[in-house]
Amino acid sequence: MIIDLRSDTVTRPTKAMLEAMFAAEVGDDVFQDDPTVNALEAKSAALFGYESALYCPSGTMTNQIAIKVHTTPGDEVICDALSHIYLYEGGGMMSNSLVSATLLTGDYGRINAEQVRDSIKADDIHAPISRLVSLENTVNKGGGCYYDLAEIQQIKGVCEAHGLSLHLDGARLFNALVETGERPDQYGQVFDSISICLSKGLGAPVGSLLLGTKDFIKKARRVRKRFGGGWRQAGYLAAAGIYALDHHVDRLKEDHQRAKTIEGIVRRVPEVIDVLPVYTNIVIFQLAEGLLATDYVQKLNEKGIRCAPFGKDKVRMVTHLDFNDDHLTELEKRLV
Ligand SMILES: *Cc1c(COP(=O)(O)O)cnc(C)c1O
């Protein structure tokens, strides 16, 4: 038995999800006549209280499109130094949108309104134009922690006062929502755009959604085409997304419980000296002095446990739909 905790993207579609995919009615999405893609876009927009949505191949693409639409070359984006948009998108925002980034050091990746206010540049020809604030929820590199909605509302106030747009990289937003009990439309009210991944905890094989106003999504659709993301009978994949939104949201709580159990297990592992607080489905732990993450990950790999090095001396494990209680029992046996 291989225990794969590298990411929540490693899941395979369930039988019921595959059936929904096989049964999908499709068209050509570049002509906007794929009924299943249109249904997924309408459903997700309504869920978050937006006018419109755009279904894309990846969360990197939805983030990159959003940054492109919100900014013009020479602008700056304000975000946490741990942000996926900065660290893990191939330098995309700098090369696709020709923008610079002001990197703030937040609380495990969560920035606050005061930090944002203090980092907005004055209207001065020496400075880039502060144009966009981007938040991440949950924070991947912050161990899956999530924002307090009241803080986000404060940040929104600062953005409004200074004419900045506010984007959310919500790759794992549903993981936050099932913990806080907040509603998707409460998030729709504060962000100018949101990116949601269907291929993470929700268990779809492919796909992310970009949400926003009708005008924003119209521009986003053009950028998606330019980035090479115009796709054709994407309805087969969109059907998996619809299935995921209908059936795989509430169960995220199970992933969170198992991650909590893993936290307790890794605390008993001699090589581990610290574990980041576990809030959702991500467990990040620190290795004892002198140990390298790449070596330790290789050692676990030999025991049939797959996980990801996360910096020099940190390791990440992520729970998901294909990691059940049997895997958990087996993980404990192999680890300690
Ligand atoms: C996974 C992820 C993305 C998007 O990743 P893709 O693999 O391109 O779909 C964006 N932001 C965060 C925080 C992520 O974890």
Q: Describe it for me?
A:
The chain contains 14 helices and 13 strands. It is an alpha/beta fold and 336 residues long. It folds into 2 domains: 3-9 and 250-335, Aspartate Aminotransferase, domain 1, CATH 3.90.1150; 15-247, Aspartate Aminotransferase, domain 2 (3-Layer(aba) Sandwich), CATH 3.40.640.10. The strands form 3 sheets. The protein has a 7-stranded mixed beta sheet with strand order 2-8-7-6-5-3-4, with helices on both faces. Strand 5 (129-136), helix 7 and strand 6 form a beta-alpha-beta unit. Helix 2 packs parallel to helix 11 and helix 12 (252-267) runs parallel beside helix 14. The longest helix has 16 residues, at 252-267. The relative contact order is 0.18. The model has no long low-confidence stretch (mean pLDDT 98). The site of pyridoxal-5'-phosphate (PLP) has 13 residues, from helix 3.
Produce a short descriptive summary.
InterPro entries: ArAA_b-elim_lyase/Thr_aldolase (IPR001597), Low_specificity_L-TA-like (IPR023603), PyrdxlP-dep_Trfase (IPR015424), PyrdxlP-dep_Trfase_major (IPR015421), PyrdxlP-dep_Trfase_small (IPR015422). The protein is an alpha/beta fold and 336 residues long.
Strand content: 15-25%
Per DSSP, the total helix count is 14
Distinct compounds present: pyridoxal-5'-phosphate
Overall structural domain count = 2
Shape: globular
Radius of gyration: 20 Å
Record field, number of beta strands:
13
**Average pLDDT over all residues:** 98
Strand-pairing-aware structural class? alpha/beta
Q: Report the helical percentage.
A: 40-55%
Name the CATH superfamily classification of the largest domain: Type I PLP-dependent aspartate aminotransferase-like (Major domain)
In which order are the strands of the major sheet placed? 2-8-7-6-5-3-4
